Model the fold of this input.
Amino acid sequence: MLPFLRCAAGFGLLSTSLLPACSGPAPATDARRVFRYNQPESLTSLDPAFARNQANTWAVTQLYNGLVELDDSLKPGPSLARRYDISPDGRRYTFTLRPNVFFHDSEVFAGGKGRRVTAQDFVYSFRRLLDGATASPGGWIFRGKVLEKADGEPSDTCFVAVNDSTLRIHLQEPFIPFLGILTMPYAYVVPREAVQRYGKDFREHPVGTGPFQFKEWDEGNAIIYHRNPGYWKKDAQGQRLPYLDAVQISFIQDRKTEFLTFMQGKLDFLSGIRAGSRDLLMYPDGRVRDDFQGKFRLQKVPYLNTEYLGMQQDLRNLRGDNLATGQALQDKRVRQALNYALNKPELLAYFLNNVGKPGHSGFVPASLPSFDAQQVPGYTYQPDKARQLLRAAGYGPGLKPLRLRLSTVAETKEYAEYYQKKWAEVGVQVDIDVNQGAAHGELIDNGRAAFFTRSWLGDYPDAENYLALFYSKNFAPAGPNKTHFRRPAYDQLYEQAKLEQNTQERYALYQQMDRLIVEECPVIAVYYDEVVRLTQNNVRGLTPNPMNQLVLERVRKE
Done:
């Protein structure tokens, strides 16, 4: 066990603490075996049933495992299931569990020793997600997919423990991305004993199977994990993982302070750089400034996020200026003109130091394997074409004026002002309506914003997760279709793609759907995001991927 000191202001790893120093001598801890990262956003729970944001997801990923996991190329592969089989009709998944996996030692088990994981633990964990009493936001990963009764409730046989080492999941119909969904933290396994012992306090008393086990959480100050000495994974040389002895999570909310703390060597890793720090660190073309060359490693990698502008297709809930905007946006030529008027590469260079790729294809981001810019050509900067389309729609010099209202939030106001300027250049006047994040989301979900800024961060690495935003049965607020886009031809392609088991043929259907979205233009894909990750030079084995996961089981510090 590592030496810790308890402080009045919190607790910290000696010689690596980000917190106020404690008084009194103590033995030193080797900082090379402690990984320190900061979590500026709110972390609300260490229960995987509530892993709805990056903060919770990163924290629980170190503590738990699921049946399957993503490799570096975003393909699902075995994890706690050593193998799996999918029936020819795509409706039955059979998982054979590893025999040597145990929950962390905990007082909830007899003698305090972690017991072996069985198939029944997965049945319990999955049913818990669907239980209304749990109130998990993750029930959607199974709802509407697994076998259901006539009343829409999950069937008693949708999850079946055939024996201790064999689990079966029955789907209503084939759903090709299902393995990808099972890699999500919502699907991590938890022990019934811990949930029943702690109830809602399980959020701060986590018991998992992962590479690290929970030590302490001083809310607002730090979380400490220790190495799980009985972790089931080994490296290629037979050495038991993880290599690190501990993980320390701090909660510095101010981004500038966070960046300075990293530059002082008191954090090992930083993900996402805000504008002020980004300008300090990078030239407008994305290169690291000379002053910082060699001081740390910078990785700029694709991120499963599309920043977009949405245009409401359903006028029923629009009022006032939003109704007038919505009526004008019913004309496809207007929607297309707004897209052609934006200089997306200029936006990225001016505001984001070229972190991101311009949205010159469809809605599906460039980091997904089905992406093909040649198969799905989108909109480039063509202001003259924008003016032509507007004139054809009846707007422009000598014609009626076009005035729109764009809803956004404070964080993206400067982008909105840039859009406003570019649209003014082609004769469109746009007023900007700035709202708080929650109010902005509510306006969009309830169809009261005609024109709005939004982003879609992928839940799992399949284009279906993005294309579902335009399926007519997914209308917001219940579903992700924020624009209430509806086309029978699109729905038919979507339903066909969900059943298509041939990968290349499914990708062709995805591309056909994305081309339809480009043509109809219910959204403007502004850019496909990238994430900047900084690591200290002595960190090894921290590999990025487009999901921006934080996986520490193979990380070393030299």
